[in-house]
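Researcher: I'd like a structural prediction for the single chain below. Treat it as a standalone chain; there are no partners to consider.
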Amino acid sequence: MSDSTGIRLIEPADAAPIAAHRARDVEAFRPWEPDQPAAHFTPEGQAERIDRLLAGYRAGSVWPGVVLDGDQVIGQVTVGGVLRQPHLRRGSVGYWIATPAQNRGHAGRAVARVLRVMADELGLHRAEASTQLENLPSQRVLRRNGFSPYGVAHSSILLDGAWRDALLWERVLGD
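Model: Treating it as a single chain, here is the predicted structure.
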């Protein structure tokens, strides 16, 4: 299998394909993500979300990307919470892959590529991430990319009506 996975900065034109993936995959992602209003799953809702992400990008607080298979948008990879202070240079990685494209290595390759963006373009020293305790596929993606677990954030996210714990991950970039 050839490596056709790429990432790039999100664009307003990505709203429609992202909305289509999110609407189709709402049940598949329910265990891992907070509930969203119906507008989140529409091209208009995604266009507003992309506008907010790009404003954050211009402000330097986020690097919002899409994951590509060839030229097709199949997911997102985002670096949020970017801090670029002399003594603290870090960001938090988040990602998702549309269900038809899962289990093909795209998530792992997208995370590897965004780690290079974090080090080379953003000048960050540390990458962080979190997963639900039960999300073993995502944990495998992080482990394969050099992340190590370092703690549990208790009752950190409200999912499906209950507060859930999250496993915290870290990687020092350049290691």
